[in-house]
Design goal:
heterodimer, A: 166 residues, alpha/beta, Beta Polymerase, domain 2, two-stranded parallel ribbon, 3 helices, B: 404 residues, alpha+beta, Cytochrome-c3 Hydrogenase, chain B, 3-stranded antiparallel β-sheet, globular
Chain lengths: 166, 404
């Protein structure tokens, strides 16, 4: 079983593991997360070659406040895994996994945009769905859903030349 | 021609080959159906760099879902991928039902499956029709949009709406199939067949079309996997991954169908994969209709499903039941679920978190075309401006889903 293999391989790196509703969830420490994900992708027992999603959940009252949630999938072995990292606000951070999966590029940007999670080592961490001058992080629980912000003035492209992709 | 002597010092000689032009294409460009901006750096007409800006259609889907009850999320899900809203409805309903540990009726599963596939064909028709018109094949666009109308008529006969169907509920659906659905479907499919045959003849071996599509927007298999592409984009690159086969939901494991796969990973393969998928969807619908069991489409658990109107108007228990479900919402046990369905553009995932109250604590959508847009600049760098249009068309970005 996947969960036994994970425990045998990673031991105490896995803080907790649970199997609920046919879905396996593990929680890991953020300090060793990058190597952990690399191993999950490369090692023959796991082969998580596909990053499905990165998102966060804001548990306003809880410590640590945020869960960063990674949904992994193995196209070759057909199993899924959810990995969580608990991080504390107001400036939560984790290491970027862009070097492991290309999909992390935009997913991490969105997570940063919506929750203000800093992905250290991301090559180009900037807002993606909201505009640059937007203040705050809309999906945090302390951002009121009805809050209004002014529409920004148009930016003169001559004064501010357009961006590069990297 | 020699220049006059007095101009000699006034003209700065420039080498056009090292001049990079910056061009902002969009956000409202007639050839890109969808509000999107490309920040281009061009060497002549060749793309040196392309920064894709999305978010123009961001309406705070995930935030708004947290404000209402679980049932109130259904209208929002319609507005994700508005070309195939039935699939979004089904995906969200399945996610909540798994959290509730509720099993829907057999008939419900079949009906959901049938409607998902009808929506998939409609979505592919929209995508291919629009993409064809952008490369000059306007005839195909009109044929395909006409065929889509037949399918919208079908959808309307079941859900009462053509686009924003809001037809699934937790535990079932608002409507069963109409009694004459089989006949309607036969009539629609007969006409659809004709359209598909015609469009196949018009496009598949058309020199102009092939020249515009083949070899354009290529992405290798490993890159496609790394960038998280799913659906026709991934399958065109030669990976046979389909949620319906890999992680079957509803009753897809009882259906016989093939997963069309390409090998070059270019736009022509993407076009072909989509085209073949429509035939496969038809196959699935015909099988499902043949095996469609009788019975109710909605379960009768009073904690999940609204009571019948008869009871609401005539008994205090029914009235209270109705009131509680509307005002407080369905009490979904605390927990989390990731439910993936095969949307028309790829893996559409709903990650829902409940804290045990009547409202969703967090609803996250994994949008397939968002990831596709993330890989777009890899497909475009080194290509020409006209290739943006075909590649963008084949990603089939749906603003509602990409920007949420």
């Amino acid at each position: 079983m996947l969960i036994e293999k994970l425990k045998a391989r990673f031991g105490d790196e896995i803080l907790s593991a649970q199997d609920a509703r046919d879905e396996l969830t593990i929680t890991i420490e953020r300090e060793r997360a990058y190597d952990f994900f690399r191993a999950l992708r490369d090692e023959a027992d796991f082969e998580f070659n596909f990053l499905t999603d990165i998102t966060a959940v804001d548990w306003l009252e809880r410590k640590p406040r945020f869960d960063i949630v990674y949904q992994l999938n193995s196209l070759t072995r057909g199993h899924r895994l959810r990995v969580k990292i608990g991080v504390e606000g107001p400036e939560p951070w984790v290491n970027s996994v862009v070097g492991v999966w290309g999909a992390a590029d935009w997913l991490e940007r969105e997570c940063f945009d919506m929750f203000g999670v800093i992905f250290k080592g991301h090559p180009d961490l900037r807002r993606i769905l909201m505009y640059d001058s937007f203040e705050g992080y809309p999906l945090r629980k302390d951002y009121h859903y009805n809050k209004r912000q002014p529409i920004v003035a148009e930016i003169d492209p001559v004064v501010n030349p357009i961006r590069s992709s990297r | 021609m020699a220049l006059p002597a007095r101009w000699k010092n006034k003209i700065v000689p420039s080498d056009p080959s090292d001049e990079i032009m910056e061009l902002q294409m969009g956000p409202s460009h007639p050839a890109s159906h969808g509000t999107i901006k490309f920040n281009l750096k061009l060497d002549g007409e060749r793309i040196v760099d392309c920064d894709v800006e999305v978010g123009y259609l961001h309406r705070g889907f995930e935030k708004m879902c947290e404000q209402g009850t679980w049932t109130q999320c259904f209208p929002y899900t319609d507005r994700l991928n508005y070309a195939s809203p039935c699939i979004n409805n089904v995906g969200f309903a399945l996610a909540v039902e798994r959290l509730l540990a509720v099993e829907t009726t057999e008939r419900c599963k079949y009906v959901r499956l049938i409607m998902s596939e009808v929506a998939r064909i409609a979505d592919h028709l929209t995508c291919l029709g629009m993409a064809s018109s952008e490369v000059g094949a306007t005839t195909v666009a009109f044929y395909m949009l006409e065929a889509r109308e037949f399918l919208y008529d079908l959808i309307e006969s079941v859900t009462g709406a053509r686009l924003t169907v809001t037809w699934c509920r937790v535990g079932g659906m608002t409507h069963d199939l109409p009694a004459d659905f089989q006949d309607r479907m036969k009539a629609s499919f007969a006409r659809l067949d004709q359209v598909l045959t015609d469009c196949d003849k018009l496009l598949s071996r058309n020199r102009v079309f092939i020249d515009r599509m083949a070899g354009v927007g290529k992405l290798a298999k490993e890159e496609a996997i790394s960038y998280g592409l799913t659906g026709p984009l991934l399958r065109a690159a030669g990976v046979s991954y389909d949620v319906r086969k890999a992680h079957p939901y509803l009753v897809y494991d009882r259906m016989e169908f093939e997963v069309p796969v390409g090998d070059r990973g270019d736009n022509y393969d993407r076009f072909n994969v989509r085209f073949q998928e429509m035939y496969q969807s038809k196959r699935i619908i015909e099988q499902a209709l043949a095996a469609l069991p009788e019975g109710p489409v909605t379960i009768t658990d009073p904690k999940v499903v609204l009571p019948e109107k008869e009871k609401v108007y005539n008994s205090i228990e029914g009235l209270m039941n109705h009131f509680k479900l509307i005002m407080e919402g369905i009490h979904v046990p605390a927990g989390e679920v990731y439910q993936a369905v095969e949307g028309a553009n790829g893996e559409l995932g709903f990650y829902v978190v409940s804290d045990g109250s009547g409202r969703p604590y967090r609803v996250r959508v994994r949008p397939p075309c968002f990831l596709g847009m993330g890989a777009l600049n890899k497909m475009l760098i080194g290509r020409m401006i006209p290739d943006i249009i075909t590649t963008f068309g084949m990603i089939n970005m749906i603003g509602g889903e990409c920007d949420r």
